[in-house]
Amino acid sequence: MVGDDGLARCPWGASHPVHLAYHDAEWGMPVHGEAAHLERLTLEAFQSGLSWLTILNKRPAFRAAFAGFDADVVAAYDDADRARLMADAGIVRNRLKVDAAITNAAATVALREEGGLAAFIEGFRPEVGPAPVTTEDMVATSAESVALSKALKKKGFVFVGPTTMYALMEAIGIVDDHLVGCHRRGCANA
C-alpha cells in the first residue's frame, strides 16, 4: 500500500497513525539489551487475544507498571505488586498475563547464566528468512518459533507459544516479514 507520503508499506502499517509510527520506526528492527527483549516478549504475551493497537496505546503505562522491564525489579514483584498491577487501568488487567510477566522476568534473570535472553532468542534465527509478497504469503508460526517456544518453556517461561514467539521474532528483526516492496523491507539488516 502506497501512503500519501509516496512510501510503500505493509497494509497494516498504514491502517492507523499509531501503526504507521510503529511500522516505520520499530517493527522488524533489531533491539539491544535485556530490557528491550523482555519488553517485546512481555508485550507480545499481553497482546494474545487482543489488538496490537491496544497494546501500543498502553505501552507507556506498561513501561511504568513494569519498571522499564528491568528483570531484577519485576522478578521481585510480590502479591502487593500483583494487586497494584491488577488495579492499573493503564495496562491490560489479566491475572494470567500479569503473573506471566513476573514469571518471565525471573526466568530472564536465571537465563543470564547461559548468556542471557537476547542471545538465547537470537539462537533461533532462521538461516533463510521469508520474503512475503502479499499478506497471504505471511505465516503465523515457523519451525524456529516452535523450537523457541519449547526451549523457553523448558527455561521456565510461560505465555510463549509458537505464534507469540513468531510475532516476537518479527518485532525484533529476527524474521523480516515486511512485504517485498515495503520501504522497510531489509531494515533488520541495516
Automatic annotation (TrEMBL):
Can you name this protein?
DNA-3-methyladenine glycosylase I
Its taxonomic path starts at:
Bacteria, Bacillati, Actinomycetota, Actinomycetes, Propionibacteriales
Per UniProt, Zn(2+) binds at: 10, 23, 178, 182
Against PANTHER family, the record matches this protein to: DNA-3-METHYLADENINE GLYCOSYLASE 1 (PTHR30037), DNA-3-METHYLADENINE GLYCOSYLASE I (PTHR30037:SF4)
Q: Which Gene3D superfamilies match?
A: Hypothetical protein, domain 2
Alphabetically ordered keywords of this record: Metal-binding, Zinc
Q: Which GO terms describe its molecular function?
A: DNA-3-methyladenine glycosylase activity; metal ion binding
Q: Where does the source fall among the domains of life?
A: Bacteria
Provide the species name: Nocardioides islandensis
Give GO BP annotations, semicolon-separated. base-excision repair
* One Pfam family in the UniProt entry: Adenine_glyco
Could you confirm whether the keyword Zinc appears in this record? yes
